[in-house]
Amino acid sequence: MNARSCSDLVVLCALVGLWAGAPAVAQTTYRCSVDGRSVLSDKPCTTGPGTRLSGYGPIYRDPTPGRQGYTAPVVRAPDHLQYLSPACAELNDALRTAPSRGVGHAVQRDLQVEYQSKCGEDDRSARQQLAQDQSDQRAAQRGEREARATARALSQRERDQCHEMLRILHGKRQRAPELSAGEQADLQRFEANYNGRCKG
């Protein structure tokens, strides 16, 4: 074997070694339509028409030891989600759940750009509406607490007044034999007033 043949053999072995250590090639990539916009995904399209592209590009493998099979947790839905339009709420969900569904970083960036472009104003309006509703709810709760406190104070004042009227009534009754006819009539009216107000 001459020197050129040996050199070619070395190069061939090196290429085989590089190929063996290269990241896996994707079997399938999907071109999906999201709100009229074409995006690439390594997952089947969940909404809208899609095109299957075979053998397109490499699949990213995280080389970090101990992370095989890692699935990102789903981020909790934001409180203002219910105030978004249906289209923006769906896009928000797609963006929020993308990491847990294994969507690639490039696709996530596309979703983020699309959300900011199409739903930025809707998102700000939804947050403002949520803040206003929360403020109104706090005001209503504060009003209810104040109303309950006022009712308790009024009830306590009425009980105190009834106790004072009963004290006066006892005193008048003890002096009933000494009272004049007019004072007797006053005592009867006072007692009727007490019964109607405090025993009703």
Descriptive tags:
three-stranded antiparallel sheet; disordered N terminus; 200 residues; 60% helix; mainly alpha
Account of the protein in words:
The protein has 200 residues and is mainly alpha-helical. It is built from four helices and three strands. Strand 1 and strand 2 form a beta hairpin. The longest helix has 70 residues, at 105-174.
Structural class, by secondary structure, is mainly alpha
Strand order of the largest sheet: 2-1-3
Our estimate of the beta-strand percent is: 5-15%
Based on CA atoms alone, the radius of gyration comes out at 41 Å
Distance between the termini: 122 Å
Helix content: 55-70%
Mean pLDDT, as a whole number? Answer: 76
**Topology order in helix (H) and strand (E) letters:** HEEEHHH
**Major beta-sheet overview:** 3 strands, antiparallel
Count the strands?
A: 3
Shape: rod-shaped
Number of helices: 4
Low-confidence spans: 2-27, 50-67
Layout: helices, strands, pairs:
Elements lengths: L2 H19 L6 E7 L2 E5 L8 E5 L31 H12 L7 H70 L6 H18 L2
Antiparallel strand pairs: 1-2, 1-3
In short:
With 200 residues, this protein is mainly α. Helix content is 60%, strand content 8%.
